[in-house]
Amino acid sequence: MSIPVTKAIFPVAGLGTRFLPATKANPKEMLPIVDKPLIQYAVEEAISAGITELVFVTSSSKRAIEDHFDTNFELEHCLSSQGKSELLQMVQNIVPKGVDCIYVRQPQALGLGHAVLCARQVIGRVPFAVLLADDLIDAQTPCLKQMLEIYHEANASVVAVQEIPREDVQKYGVIAVDKGWHGQGQVQAIVEKPKPNEAPSNYGVVGRYILTAETFDHLQQIPPGRGGEIQLTDAIARLLKHQKVMALQFKGTRHDCGSKLGYLQATISLGLKHPELGAEFKKYLHGLLSDNIL
User: Fold this and answer.
1) Contact predicate 65/17, CB 8 Å
2) Where are the beta strands (DSSP E) in the chain?
3) pTM of the entire structure?
4) Which tens digits make up the pLDDT trace of 158-185?
5) Does domain 7-258 match CATH 3.90.550.10?
């Protein structure tokens, strides 16, 4: 019987250099998609999947993230005194009751694996999730919830994957799958950023993981690679030798908000779905089309 997954790690210590100068004083994870910051989308996905402990691996420049998920008494008093009850409820429910936020510092930017390892003492010896806010996944059933179904069925670690162009495999950890692959199955091997002609498939791992506690043991043993970084993919490759790891080609749309183009695409896609702005925004875009601006 599988152990319930109630803890999730959010690695948010990166510098966000691809979005400079916007990220000079503002964390990349706090950039808004319409009216919510990127990190909130990931947190909402985790909470909807039953996560009750949110572990943020941060750096000294990421205080805005902690402030966002904390109580703002002055703002709440202002909204209350002005009778803005809907906005007050929205602010108060960013983190629902029964959900705890924990913050751990990553002293140096030494890779995703190192960031995950920084949370080891908080997680303990239980399975956990990892969510990368850069990957905003828009899905009817939240991606992490889809993955938990596979986790409980197989009692094993699970990575989320998507089919990617062969020329882009060097940007991903890429899995090898067996001949019976139909969107989910056991991972046979995993390689970090292979050359296109050396990739075992064109299924790349995206920013959602459910991992067993043994992952920490392998992260501890991995020698630093290029730039002194410790890669999570390398730990999963080691884990494969001792435990089953599953892969799921999730149902939904992933927006790579670590890139400027992906960020703009996410803004348009979610803007069109926004309950208050969607219809008017769609009308605006149609106007651009009719004026041959697009």
Assistant:
1) no
2) 7-11, 32-33, 36-37, 53-58, 100-105, 128-131, 135-138, 157-163, 173-177, 184-192, 203-211, 245-249, 253-256
3) 0.94
4) 999 999 998 899 989 999 988 778 889 9
5) yes
